[in-house]
Design brief:
Blueprint: E1 6-11, E2 24-29, E3 39-47, H1 51-55, E4 75-83, E5 93-97, E6 103-106, E7 112-113, H2 130-143, E8 150-153, H3 161-170, E9 174-179, H4 182-191, E10 196-199, H5 205-212, E11 217-222, H6 226-233, E12 236-244, H7 248-251, H8 263-268, E13 272-275, H9 285-298, E14 305-309, H10 314-321, E15 329-333
Parallel strand pairs: 8-9, 8-11, 9-10, 11-12, 12-13, 14-15
Antiparallel strand pairs: 1-2, 3-4, 3-6, 3-15, 4-5, 5-7
Helix pairs in contact: 2-3, 2-9
Bound molecules: NADP nicotinamide-adenine-dinucleotide phosphate.
């Protein structure tokens, strides 16, 4: 492959269970030429996110699926290398949904200019990008935490979960995270300052939750669904709030489990369960980004990125995310900044 070709990853076929290498194809293509009003972007960072599993599936959803043979959907950070629009200059750093490829053309309206002085540019698709906005609004606006609340967050070391837990600490809550390895639990407790962590793969989750949440659970930020969520639901308090962000335990099942069966608890506890999409808060993302950048500068908000080198390794990295192999926000370094 020469650096002059447009390497890209396309969807080869649709998985019915867990994705495998055969569902992706790596192709070389010509670098696209920008038309009047467009710019050519060289991708530096590609974000890999669980929602992409949904795009590999046909059927009704909030977004269209990737076509067979189509470039995989994905958020990127890149540099403008050629411009035929006055709104973008060569050298500008931009963020947008340009897919799993080395080069892409775009109109400026589909891009957000990234301020490289705010934070390292990779954060534009991480803690200060879509996952960070998900954590901020899904927790503060849907979870409605109050000082002294006990908060539980699942997939707690991941892109969204690590931010939720730290905002919980900033808001004066007791924060407990669940994660899939002892190293991840150690990270959220000893490096991020969570009050407790539970390895849901090796511990008795019911007993561990009871020990970590002696006053019950006021806010649950659900990234995973499945048996972890079942266990949390049994220990919610009166007027608990359940922010349903993701259900990754179900994404790769050919037959998703028919749940929840714990709705009676919502009645007993007069609790609220609400799903959300990060885009519904889009008009306030910039405001939140500035606030969170301030927390990063003050040291209140830290972030862990899991960087995989090379676009050709994106399928393997994505497959690994579905079983918890990533440790932090999963990024592909597509080219040098
Ligand atoms: N509503 C929205 O607008 C929105 C926006 C962004 C993301 N999301 C959702 O938020 C969730 C987290 O996304 P993210 O980007 O932060 O991903 P992430 O946590 O960085 O990576 C996914 C993690 O999920 C965990 N996981 C995988 N399979 C699991 C299973 N069967 N049961 C329990 N945990 C499992 C793994 O961590 P462990 O090792 O801890 O198991 C894995 O590392 C996803 O469900 C995603 O779809 C929603």
């Amino acid at each position: 492959m020469t650096s002059e070709s447009n390497l890209r990853v396309v969807l080869a076929s649709r998985p019915s269970g867990y994705p495998e290498a055969e569902h992706f194809r790596i192709e070389e293509a010509r670098i696209p030429q920008p038309r009047e009003g467009e710019a050519l972007i060289r991708v530096i960072w590609l974000s890999l996110d669980p929602y992409m599993r949904g795009r590999m599936r046909e059927g009704p959803s909030y977004a269209a699926p990737v076509e067979i043979g189509g470039v995989m959907t994905g958020g990127v950070v890149g540099r403008v290398v050629e411009s035929r629009t006055p709104e973008l200059a060569v050298g500008d750093i931009v963020e947008g949904s340009l897919g799993w490829q080395r080069y892409a053309v775009s109109r400026p309206g589909a891009l957000r200019k990234v301020d490289p002085d705010l934070a390292p540019i990779s954060t534009a698709i991480g803690v200060l990008g879509m996952p960070g906005m998900t954590a901020y609004f899904g927790f503060l606006e849907v979870g409605e935490p109050e000082v002294g609340d006990t908060v539980v967050v699942s997939a707690a070391s991941g892109a969204v979960g690590q931010v939720v837990g730290q905002i919980g600490k900033i808001m004066g809550c007791r924060v407990v995270g669940t994660a899939g390895s002892d190293a991840k639990v150690d990270f959220i407790v000893n490096e991020l300052g969570f009050d407790a962590g539970i390895n849901y793969k090796s511990e008795d989750v019911d007993a561990a939750l009871a020990a970590a949440c002696p006053d019950g659970i006021d806010v649950y930020f659900d990234n995973v669904g499945g048996f972890v969520t079942d266990a949390v639901m049994q220990q919610i308090n009166v007027h608990a709030r359940i922010s349903v962000c993701g259900q990754i335990s179900q994404y790769n099942l050919a037959q998703p489990e028919l749940a929840p069966r714990s709705m009676g608890l919502l009645i007993q506890k007069q609790a609220k369960m609400e799903g959300f999409l990060v885009f519904q808060f889009a008009t306030r993302h910039e405001w939140a980004r500035q606030r969170m950048a301030g927390w990063i500068r003050s040291g209140d908000l830290r972030y862990r990125e899991d960087v995989v080198e090379g676009l050709e390794n994106a399928p393997t990295a994505f497959i690994g995310m579905m079983t918890g192999e990533n440790f932090g926000k999963l990024l592909i370094r597509v080219s040098e900044g």
